[in-house]
UniProtKB/TrEMBL annotation:
Keywords: Signal. Coiled coil: none annotated. This is Trimeric autotransporter adhesin YadA-like head domain-containing protein. InterPro entries: Adhesin_Head_dom, Serralysin-like_metalloprot_C. It comes from Salmonella enterica. GO terms for cellular component: outer membrane.
Amino acid sequence: MIKKFNIAFLTALIISTPVLATTVGSGTEKSINIGNGALVTNMPGGSDAANGVAIGNNADARAGNNIAIGNSATAHNNYDSVAIGNGASATGAFSSIAIGRAASSTSPSGGIAVGDSSNASGNYALAIGNGASAAGDNSTAIGGGFSTIPGASASSGGTAIGANSVADKGIAIGSGSRATRADQVDIGSRQITGLKDGTRVTDAATVGQMNAADTATLKNAQAYTDTAKADAIMQANQHSDANLATAKGYTDT
């Protein structure tokens, strides 16, 4: 009985509460808008806003299948964009996702930003972590910042993993790592452990391989030195014997 009363009370409360939400334009069927100033509407000259969702004060969902949840959350442009979080903004052309307070995805297509103040601004760019930034197509930044430490930052197709890591075309792994050249991999002066010995010319060599190679080189050098020394002594002895024989012959004469 109490459960039925609570459901009835909540239903009446929701129905009677003025939310000042707005649905604008034709093609807004099956849309949902809840909150003061919440808005679901068509893009000017673009697709309709069917199935749009705007929940939160001043939440704004424009075009089909867009979802904006949070105060002043914004999901604009063609379709399938998602903005969740106060001030989150997903304004890329297609399938942009922004999750987190003030998260922003402005990628033309497929950009994803997850984390407070994260930003994805390239096609299929991925930024995960507070303050993470992925600028440029196919860039990936994973690692949230804190206090005065910035999040990961990647551009021009680079990959940055770790707080305050930076990758411009290259790959930066670990907090504070920097990769600013094409095809560069930087691990921030860290050791790489657990490697298997390299077998091809482009493989990395382990310290064990280097030590074995040094030992073999020293042995070969020692053998060469010993052989050269023996040859030199033999040649010197032969030369001395020849000189003695010549001197003896001269004396006998």
